[in-house]
């Protein structure tokens, strides 16, 4: 019960030191929100974290994120241990990048979201999958897949600096540094500025 009133000093101090983007009172607020989400999740994690469903609902209500594939990938970037739950450390550290991360941190985060199989590259197939999910396809479009394939080829032409047919992090980083709008080239995975 004491934890729900005021987060533990050690945890707050530790997270404030490790996560440079939030001050002590912000970390306290994020821990309180985490506790609320854990209470809402009603899972077997017994206070150790909350699951994918609560995470998705939270990102939807807080940031308007709706794309299922993107939400699952964002969950995976937060859940670095692949445990199926978000711990308080995952929560605070993940939000630090999502909300206040440097360009470098956001590039690494977005790249990880788009690298669906975690092999260190964004392939044509992964670009296609992400774009197919994030674009609004009009019913009148005869061949929506063809249009998406064309977009993939345009993205590769613009971003694939070593011309190997896939994007390494180096390719992605160079493209984003040249044109910051390419940060979310394959789908909205960051909250709006507001």
UniProtKB/TrEMBL annotation:
Recorded GO MF terms: calcium ion binding
Any matching Pfam family: EF-hand_7
Record-linked PROSITE patterns: EF_HAND_1, EF_HAND_2
The entry's keywords: Calcium, Metal-binding, Repeat
Keyword Calcium recorded: yes
Residues covered by the EF-hand domain: 66-101, 102-137, 147-182
InterPro entries: EF-hand-dom_pair, EF_Hand_1_Ca_BS, EF_hand_dom, Recoverin
Protein name per Swiss-Prot or TrEMBL: EFCB1 protein
Primary gene name: Efcab1
């Amino acid at each position: 019960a004491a934890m729900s009133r005021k987060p533990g000093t050690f945890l707050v101090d530790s997270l404030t030191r490790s996560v440079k983007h939030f001050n002590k009172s912000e970390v306290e607020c994020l821990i309180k929100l985490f506790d609320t989400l854990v209470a809402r999740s009603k899972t077997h994690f017994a206070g150790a974290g909350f699951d994918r469903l609560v995470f998705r609902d939270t990102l939807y209500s807080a940031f308007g994120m709706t794309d299922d594939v993107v939400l699952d990938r964002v969950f995976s970037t937060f859940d670095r241990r692949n445990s199926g739950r978000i711990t308080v450390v995952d929560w605070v550290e993940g939000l630090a990048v999502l909300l206040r991360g440097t360009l470098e941190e956001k590039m690494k985060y977005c790249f990880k979201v788009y690298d669906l199989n975690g092999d260190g590259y964004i392939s044509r197939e992964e670009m296609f999958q992400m774009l197919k999910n994030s674009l609004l396809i009009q019913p009148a479009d005869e061949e929506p897949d063809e249009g998406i394939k064309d977009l993939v080829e345009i993205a590769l032409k613009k971003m694939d600096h070593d011309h190997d047919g896939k994007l390494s992090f180096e390719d992605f980083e160079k493209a984003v540094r040249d044109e910051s709008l390419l940060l979310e080239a394959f789908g909205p995975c960051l909250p709006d500025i507001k």
